[in-house]
Amino acid sequence: MLDDFFSRAIIAGIGVALVAGPMGCFIVWRRLAYFGDTLAHAALLGVALAFLFEVNTTLAVFAVSAVVSIALLLLQKRASLSSDALLGLLSHSALALGLVVLAFMTWVRMDLMGLLFGDILAVSKIDIALIYAGGLAVLTVLCFIWKPLFAATVSRELAEAEGLHPDRANVIFMLLMATVIAIAMKIVGVLLITALLIIPAAAARKFASGPEQMAVIASLFGVAAVAGGLFGSLEWDTPSGPSIVVAAVFLFVVSLSPLSTWIARRLSKQEVPGA
Question: Is 87 exposed, middle or buried (CB count within 10 Å of its CB: 0-12, 13-18, 19+)?
Fold first, then answer.
């Protein structure tokens, strides 16, 4: 089965969607969409450094994303700028520096469009193993920090009062985001990673009666977007990465329809005993 490029793409996309769902929920809850963009832009610098020092691309992207995450935490404590200004500074600085480094490496030939928008149809068995191993690690760690992270999302002061160490949970969450960016980059590209994180989670919000349920539904919507986008790409010969995002947008639009509202109400009634 894995010898077929389309089957490999489906398997890899499902792996990324299962991880992106729960992580995307925290992005939505915490209003950190720009943070996701910042890490995605930093991924380009990671790719450039990987070519420069001849190291693994995924590891280089993770390292750069992790450094940017820690830099954001340090600047938030010491700088007088707002968080969105700091994110803009880090995002565009990393993106510009990555492009400059690539421009100097004239001996390197790379598919910039594939880097920006993904090349899921070119994933290998090793890529799939990396996606699932990294995804399992991310979900395992997320389960351990779920309570303090969610508590800090609702009320940082309450989380501190209960001794849940919200600062530690925030650092771990940012490192998990760096991991997701690194393993998802080949699927949808650095410019579309944030969309895969946010859109399924936003579509799932209406149907969920609790945070855990929303995380599961977001993963299912992400899987549906991957499958729909890839089959649509195969049918109409469109770019695979953008097609996945378009399928996710379609699911979000459908979630706004009256039928979806009726389904959501029925689901919420089933959660109440005797309803």
Answer: buried
